[in-house]
Write a structure and sequence with these properties.
Shape: globular
Distance between the termini: 8 Å
Largest sheet: 8 strands, mixed
CATH class of the largest domain: Alpha Beta
Structural class: alpha/beta
CATH topology of the largest domain: Alkaline Phosphatase, subunit A
CATH architecture of the largest domain: 3-Layer(aba) Sandwich
Number of domains: 2
Radius of gyration: 22 Å
């Protein structure tokens, strides 16, 4: 195998194969050109297929249970005191830049989720959308902050308040964020002696959540023929041109990967899981609110509660177990029968008319090689991720058609994209390619040993 001298990953958060490989392929000359001269195919995401943990799973080749975090927010312990954010400090496993740094490779990591706060690497790191502001220590080395300001001015780590009815403003912000990120990427590309370079652009994810109804005819609120529908496609064409400007002139000795962490699909509605738990006798409140209220703001009657849940793209369901939670009410002997009962009932829960929506409910130990830290007792994909999990209670509804944290058009889907080009890259993408396979493939291409505990395999 001809080894590349260096390797670049262009990460495009939430990009769906249906868009790049099918619908817009003829409108994306850079990506379609890479497909024609390289290998491409769907890339299966982790469970759950969410930005955090997906990029860390990709970079470590380990599943969320092994890593010990299951989403943006995770239980800190078995108390009732809420969730902790999964920052880079929660990542104990080596990721690609750690391994490559030790091997003497110069690495550049720009915007990769779960890199705030940044760690020391043999090279440069600019952290991700979890960065509270650019006034914080968001780069390594720290002096890189001033260089970024000189190169792009006000660098944007994310689009502020992207769940809003002001979609035109969101579109403008997405373009600005993408423009500045790629300008910085080109600067780092040209000024650092890198062996491994990785960029992740969050723009597609923010676009999907804001504008999917204007793009997808399958969306229940599809709005065809609007300026926002044109803006959706315009952004993809613009993003394609930015990818082109970044990879231009890399040379025949550079390998290239374009990948996404998961896909996207229309959000058909939401299941207010805690309302369902209340109506079925699993959850009790001290005072029931009179309007839709996040469960975290309610006072739960713990001695009378057996089950509660958290909202999000998927539902994290927790059992209130004796001798585990402070006021546990579920006898350990009843733990498995109760989980079986919840799986049966939730998978049978249909839409407002009782029609099946294809909900799937999992036990973590059946999904992961290990289950570390405090995992949910059950993980539920309502409508197989076509319906969001809504954590709020108070209005008496189980089925809703809107998100309780602001307007949202899209949910995540299980498959993202992979495109490989250049020396040392796969000749074909197998049908079962998984994001766990990316890290071993990078290491193999760069001639660095693959750790034995990685869960994926090299595609070359």
């Amino acid at each position: 195998m001809a080894r590349p001298r260096r390797l670049m990953i262009v990460g495009l958060d939430c990009v769906a194969p249906e868009i790049v490989f099918d619908d817009m392929r003829n409108e994306l000359p850079v990506l379609s050109g890479l497909m024609e001269r390289g290998a491409w195919g769907r890339l299966e995401s982790c469970d759950p297929p969410i930005t955090v943990p997906a990029w860390s799973c990709m970079m470590s080749s380990k599943d969320p249970g092994t890593l010990g975090f299951y989403g943006f927010r995770n239980r800190k312990d078995h108390s009732y005191d809420g969730m902790a954010f999964a920052t880079s400090e929660k990542v104990r496993a080596d990721r690609l830049w750690d391994i490559l740094s030790r091997a003497g490779k110069h690495v550049v990591a720009l915007g990769v989720p779960q890199t705030f706060p940044p760690r020391q690497v043999n090279g440069e790191m600019v952290s991700c959308f979890l960065t509270p502001s650019t006034d914080s220590r968001y780069t390594y080395p720290e002096a890189l902050k001033e260089e970024i300001r000189e190169v792009v001015g006000d660098y944007m780590v994310d689009v502020p308040d992207y769940r809003t009815d002001d979609r035109e403003r969101v579109v403008r912000d997405i373009h600005t964020m993408t423009e500045r990120r790629f300008a910085l990427a080109r600067h780092l590309r040209d000024t650092r002696p890198w062996d491994f370079f990785m960029l992740v652009e969050m723009g597609p994810d923010r676009l999907h959540h804001a504008l999917w109804r204007f793009y997808d005819p399958n969306h229940p609120d599809y709005a065809p023929g609007t300026p926002l529908g044109a803006a959706f496609r315009d952004y993809y064409r613009y993003l394609d041109s930015e990818v082109g400007s970044l990879i231009e002139g890399l040379g025949d000795d550079t390998a290239l990967m374009v990948v996404s962490d998961h896909g996207a699909q229309a959000m058909f509605g939401g299941i207010q899981i805690n309302e369902w738990l209340m109506q079925n006798g699993y959850l009790a409140l001290v005072d029931r609110p009179s309007e839709q209220t996040p469960i975290a703001r309610c006072t739960i009657d713990w001695p009378r509660t057996r089950v509660w849940a958290d909202g999000g793209y998927y539902s994290r369901i927790f059992l209130n177990v004796k001798d585990r939670e402070p006021d546990g009410s579920v006898d350990p002997a009843d733990y498995e029968p109760l989980r079986d009962e919840l799986i049966r009932k939730l998978e049978a829960l249909g839409d407002e008319d009782g029609n099946s929506i294809g909900t799937r409910v999992f036990r973590p130990e059946d999904m992961y090689r290990e289950v570390n830290n405090v995992a949910p007792d059950l993980i539920a994909y309502f409508g197989n991720l076509g319906w969001r999990s809504i954590g709020s209670v108070g209005d008496g509804r189980v089925h809703v058609r809107e998100n309780d944290t602001g307007p949202d058009d899209a949910n995540h889907a299980k498959f993202g994209i992979s495109i490989f080009a250049g020396p040392g890259m796969p000749a074909a993408v197998p049908a079962d390619a998984h994001l766990f396979d990316i890290a071993p493939t990078v290491l193999t291409a760069l001639g660095v040993p693959v750790p034995a505990d990685m869960q994926g395999r090299s595609l070359v």
